[in-house]
Amino acid sequence: MKNDDGSKQKIIQTVRQMIEKDVDINKITVRAIAAQAEIGVGLINYHFGSKDKLIGDVLAEIMTEEASEKISQSLAEPKKESFKAMLNGFYDLTIKYEEIEKFLIKRCLTEGDFSTEIILLPLLKQIFGESKTELELKIIAMQIIIPLQSTGLNLEGTKNYCGLDLYNREDRVKFIDILTENIMG
Length: 185
Description:
This protein starts with a helix and ends with a helix. By secondary structure, the chain is mainly alpha-helical. The protein has helices at 2-20, 30-37, 41-48, 51-76, 80-96, 98-111, 115-128, 134-153, 155-162, 169-184.
C-alpha cells in the first residue's frame, strides 16, 4: 500500500512538473507521463481512472494553491471591495492559465463540482452577516461563479456579446464591478 501511495505521488508530481514547464495539457499523454515518472502505464489508470481525471486533479490542486492566497487576503478584509479584488485575482488566473481554466471549468460544470462556490461562502457570510440564510449565500455564490465560468469558457463570445474584452484588465475589472453590484447591491 505504501508503494501505491508513492507511485501515486510520483505520477502527480510528474504531471505537475509537465504543466509547470508549460507543456500543452492537450499534448500530455499517458505514455509520456509513465515514461517521465518511470512507472507502468497501468498505474495511471489504476490510481486515477483516466488521464483527464489525473490532469484535472493536478490542475485543481495548482489553482487552489494560487487562489488560497487571494482568499486569505479577502478573509482578512471582508468588504465588498476586497471581495471584488479577489474575484479580479481569480479572473487574472483565468487569463494566465486560460487552457487550464477551460479544462477545469468544463470539468466542474459536467461533474457538478461546486467547490469554488463553497470557497466563497465564508467570505459572503462575513460580507452579509446574518442578513442572508445559508441557502441565500449559496445561491449568491452560484450567481457570481457561473457568469465567471461562462465568460472564462468563451472570452471571444463575451467580447462579441457585450463589448468587453476580458483579456484587457480594465474591462475585466469593469465586468466584475457590474457583476458584483448587480448581485450584491
